[in-house]
Design brief:
This protein has 19 helices and 13 strands. Strand 11, helix 15 and strand 12 form a beta-alpha-beta unit. It has 404 residues and is of the alpha/beta class. Helix 9 packs parallel to helix 10. 47% of the residues lie in helices and 13% in strands.
C-alpha cells in the first residue's frame, strides 16, 4: 500500500492522552464544586472533545456554572494539560515504527488537531515526534472544530495531494466522518476513552482495533476491486474478511456496469483510489452483452474486447498487477443475457489478455459447475454459496499474484 500523504490527529491517535479529560473533570470538580467525582453528562463530554479548547471551556462554564468564566477554565485546563503533556503523555503502541516507515518511504505528513498549538508542541517535543511533522494545524488557529472540513482542507492543501490520495488518521468518529465525507481515505483508531466506536469502524477504510496498532499497516497490500453487480452485491461484499487484515480492499460503492462505464470511472471518479493499488481485479460483461431490444447487444463484441484490453493496458502502463475475472453465467431460463453470448464475450478477451500478461480469474467456469446452486432466484446474481466460492477463489488468485 503506497501512501502519498497523511494527516494525523494527535490525542488518542498517536499519543495515549484521552484519559486527560477524566483528570481534568476531577480537577474541576475539586476546585469548583468540592466534588472529585464531577463529570459532564455523556452528551456534553462527547461534544467538547472536537471543539477548540476556548469553545469547550466556555461551553462547560455556561452549562455547569464552573469557574468565574470560560477564560478561567481555559487557564486551569492549560495548567493541567501542560504538565501532563510535558511529563506524562506516551506514544500509543506501533506509532514510532509506523512513522519511521512512512518517513523512509517519503510520505508527506502533518498534524491536524483540536488541541491548542502550544500544547501540541509540548507533546511533540516530549514524545520526540517533531522530526516527522514539519507542519502542524490546530483547530484553534483555523477557527473551527473537526465537525467542519476546514482543518482537513488546509492540511491537504499544504500536503499538495488530491483528496483521494490523502489519508486521515483519527480516533474521533465525528472527525473521521468529516474527512470521509470529503473523499479522503481514513484510518480509524480505537481508544477506550472515546465515543462512537461503531460509527468509527463503519466509516473508516481501515480500522485499528483495541488489540492492534498502526504497525499493522507496514507492508499492507492495497487491493482494488472494480466491476459490475457480481462484485458489488456478490464476492466484493466479503473480500476484506476473506483476505484478512494484511490487505486493504478498496472498491467503489458504485456498480461499474458496462466496460465503457468502468473506463470512465477509472479516469474520473476512482482515479485517485486505484493509482496507489498493489493489484487491481476487474470484471465487466453482463451489461455489455445484453440484447434488450432485439437489435444486438448494448456493446458489440468487438467494442467490448477493445475496451477491456484498453482498460488492462492502462492499468499495466501504470505498473499495476492486473487480474481479469471472466463474466459469470446466468440461469439458462434467463431471457437476456444468454450464457452462450457470455461465453463468446469471454473468449473474445481472455486469450489476448493472457498474451498481455493479465492474470485470469475464471469465475465463469467456477460458477458454471453448479449454476442452480451458485445463482440466486433472480437468475443473474450470485447466491450465498456463489459469493463464498467466488470470494475464496478471487482471494487465492490475488494472494498468488502478490506473492510473485
Amino acid at each position: 500500500m503506497k501512501i502519498k500523504s497523511a494527516i494525523f490527529d494527535l490525542d488518542g491517535t498517536l499519543v495515549d492522552s484521552l484519559m486527560l479529560w477524566d483528570v481534568m473533570w476531577t480537577k474541576f470538580g475539586m476546585l469548583y464544586r468540592n466534588d472529585p467525582d464531577f463529570r459532564p453528562d455523556a452528551k456534553d463530554d462527547k461534544a467538547v472533545r472536537t471543539m477548540t479548547l476556548v469553545d469547550a471551556m466556555q461551553y462547560i462554564h455556561e452549562i455547569y456554572s464552573l469557574g468565574a468564566s470560560g477564560e478561567d477554565l481555559v487557564n486551569t485546563a492549560n495548567e493541567i494539560m501542560e504538565k501532563f503533556y510535558a511529563e506524562d503523555v506516551q506514544l500509543k503502541p506501533g506509532v514510532r515504527e509506523f512513522l519511521d516507515d512512512c518517513q523512509a518511504n517519503g510520505v508527506k505528513m502533518c498534524i491536524a488537531s483540536a488541541t491548542d498549538m502550544k500544547l501540541l508542541r509540548i507533546a511533540l517535543e516530549h514524545c520526540d515526534l517533531e522530526k516527522y511533522f514539519p507542519k502542524i494545524f490546530s483547530c484553534a488557529e483555523i477557527g473551527k472544530g473537526k465537525d467542519c472540513p476546514d482543518i482537513y482542507r488546509a492540511a491537504q492543501a499544504y500536503l499538495g495531494t488530491t483528496v483521494g490520495e490523502t489519508w486521515v488518521f483519527e480516533d474521533s468518529a465525528v472527525a473521521l466522518c468529516t474527512a470521509h465525507k470529503l473523499g479522503m481515505q481514513t484510518v480509524g483508531i480505537y481508544d477506550q476513552y472515546n465515543y462512537g466506536q461503531d460509527i468509527l469502524r463503519e466509516n473508516a477504510n481501515i480500522y485499528i482495533d483495541k488489540d492492534d496498532s498502526l504497525a499493522r499497516l507496514i507492508g499492507m497490500k492495497k487491493v482494488v476491486l472494480l466491476g459490475d453487480s457480481i462484485r458489488l452485491i456478490g464476492y466484493g461484499t466479503v473480500m476484506q474478511q476473506v483476505l484478512g487484515d494484511r490487505y486493504y480492499v478498496w472498491q467503489p460503492r458504485d456498480n461499474c456496469r458496462f466496460a465503457q462505464y468502468l473506463l470512465l470511472g477509472m479516469a474520473v471518479s476512482w482515479k485517485d483510489y486505484w493509482l496507489d493499488a498493489d493489484v487491481i481485479h476487474f470484471n465487466a460483461g453482463l451489461w455489455d452483452n445484453c440484447d434488450r431490444f432485439g437489435d444486438g447487444p448494448f456493446t458489440p463484441m468487438e467494442a467490448y474486447a477493445e475496451t477491456i484490453l484498453r482498460i488492462a493496458r492502462i492499468f499495466m502502463e501504470k505498473g499495476k498487477k492486473v487480474i481479469f475475472a471472466t463474466t459469470t453465467p446466468v440461469d439458462p431460463r434467463h431471457p437476456d443475457p444468454r450464457t452462450e453470448r457470455i461465453i463468446a464475450y469471454n473468449e473474445a478477451v481472455v486469450p489476448k489478455l493472457r498474451e498481455m500478461g493479465v492474470v485470469i480469474n475464471d469465475l465463469y467456469s467456477l460458477v458454471a459447475e453448479d449454476v442452480a446452486g451458485n445463482i440466486r432466484e433472480d437468475r443473474t446474481h450470485l447466491s450465498q454459496k456463489g459469493i463464498e466460492i467466488c470470494a475464496a477463489q478471487t482471494a487465492d488468485v490475488i494472494r498468488q499474484v502478490l506473492a510473485e
